[in-house]
Amino acid sequence: MRINRKVAFAAIAAVSALSLAACSSDGGNADDDATGDGDNAGISQDTSVNIAWNQPFYSANGTSITGNATANNVILYMLNSGFNYYDEDLNLVQDTSFGSYEKVSDDPLTIKYTFADTAKWSDGVAAGPADLLLEWAAQSGKFNNVEAETDPETGEITNQDELDAGVYFDAASPAVALIEETPVIEGNSITMTYTKPFADWETAIGVNLPAHVVAQRALGIEDGAEAADALVKAIQDNDTASVSKISKVWSTDFNYASMPAEADANLLVTSGAYTITDFVKDQYITLTANPDYEGEHKAAINKVTVRYNGDPMGQVTALQNGEVDLINPQATADLLTAVQKLDGVEVATGAEGTYEHVDLQFANGGPFDPKSYGGDAAKALKVRQAFLKTIPRQDIVDKLVTPLDPTMTTTRDSFTQVPGSPMYDGIVGANGQSDEYGTVDVDAAKSLLSEAGAKDVTVRVLFDPNNTRRQNEFELIKASAEQAGFKVVPYEVQTDWGTDLSNATDFYDAALFGWQSTSTAVTESDANYRTGATNNFYGYSNKTVDAEFDKLQVETDPAAQEEILSNVEAELVKDAFGVTIFQFPGVTAWNPEKISNVSKLTIAPTIFYGFWNWTAGEAASE
């Protein structure tokens, strides 16, 4: 089966603040010579560390719909610099060694970005306005003019010639769509003007891919500076033919799951402390300190190898055997017990910034799509409601979460707020999720299916088949839903589950996974629920939700923000979009003889935060 994305005509654009839990900016301060050896990289060339992670890297484009995943962005965090980063207290701080920005006007909202002289790509080309202009072009949706047509049975694109002649950037971001006029470039600065105020403008856009590399590949120009200039001209002139080529390179070329061929070495160009030096599919990726990096956030350890293992207990075994030095697996009670028994290992626990949930497909021709009932939206709604009423949310918490952390005894009942946050209780009280789906109601589910005239309903569930906790969750959901008459089957992953989540939408009906926050922006959930937005993979569209997010973009009063998000969540519950289940419990463990100064954030990049402060013991040397 070939899997292709369904693309939306003139999709609204924006950078998502949520990533698939399976931001590309560096942060913090590091001494120029962290080990005192005086070499040009500022560190000992002997130091190395191995880190376990659950899902392999598969895209260097962390802001595309396909590539927006924690698995990618934790790696990109070490590879690329940006205008800002979060410190350990979740304060947003400018990285002036890459560049600076300032608000030059409130009416209209106008932001000026200026690149520092030390902002450079690893191939020696200076980072500059072209890089930010490219991201605006990709995220704004201004240039998209085609829509893919696919065969509903096979997923095959049936209008490839039309797509080849058109423009489609694989992105959708409501925030950047507010910048309607082409940004103005002056020297090493670029100025962006919004059509209306936007509360989270500081995290709305950032540098992502090297514009000169995209242009080299798209336009066939060898010289980097000339290529960047040609890209700027193509965008400013609205040169459809050139922008079409640019959009295809931006959307597809940077998706790779192993080391690119030598001819494609420019796909490895980065702007931060590390570069990719080795990459074996589904096994590991090795990052080595970039000796030419001139920013303030230099690598503290020369070589970082991230080894992939989706089995949490397998990560514990690897830590015990010295194969890895730092782990942060999906936690279970058995895992915590096992890791606490290891000698010489430090362990930290606590809630994480990721939450588990189930989302349903609305437009894939499956059991939750009105098309399956002759276009009768009311019948499709009843089938969605019936399935959600069978999901054993509290049972999942009781069996899989509370044994790991006795303080975590309740479900997460908000789509947008972390338990304990200021707005959480108010929104939960208003959204109705606890009333509708607080407990399993098999009888109600049977009645809804009967009213819809739905029989022999099969639900294909997408989840990570290598994740033990998700396997257990699936079995609990399956056992409960089948009591109401559903047939629940696992979707057979075609590439990897994260890629299939956005690309194989015709072939699964429900998705079980986690969203992880990458920022503290109040508008971060916009990308999940707005029509056509980055993380809305399901064809969900609600005009009220879109209008409420329009209000939220310009609202700065917390009380009004809470009311808006309450309205959004009430619509999600009314439409049976899906359900939230629990906030992730976390377990981090590391060998202090190999790596120390580990400092984990509750948002992405989690355990990779503060890599500039890591220190390696003698045992970590090669």
TrEMBL record:
Pfam families in the cross-refs: SBP_bac_5
PROSITE patterns attached to this UniProt entry: PROKAR_LIPOPROTEIN
Protein's organism: Cellulomonas fulva
Keywords carried by this UniProt record: Signal
Domain Solute-binding protein family: 102-519
InterPro entries: Peptide/Ni-bd (IPR030678), SBP_5 (IPR039424), SBP_5_dom (IPR000914)
PANTHER family the UniProt entry points to: MONOACYL PHOSPHATIDYLINOSITOL TETRAMANNOSIDE-BINDING PROTEIN LPQW-RELATED, PERIPLASMIC BINDING COMPONENT OF ABC TRANSPORTER
Domain of life, per lineage: Bacteria
Signal peptide boundaries: 1-21
Name listed for the protein in its UniProt record: ABC transporter family substrate-binding protein
Presence of keyword Membrane: no
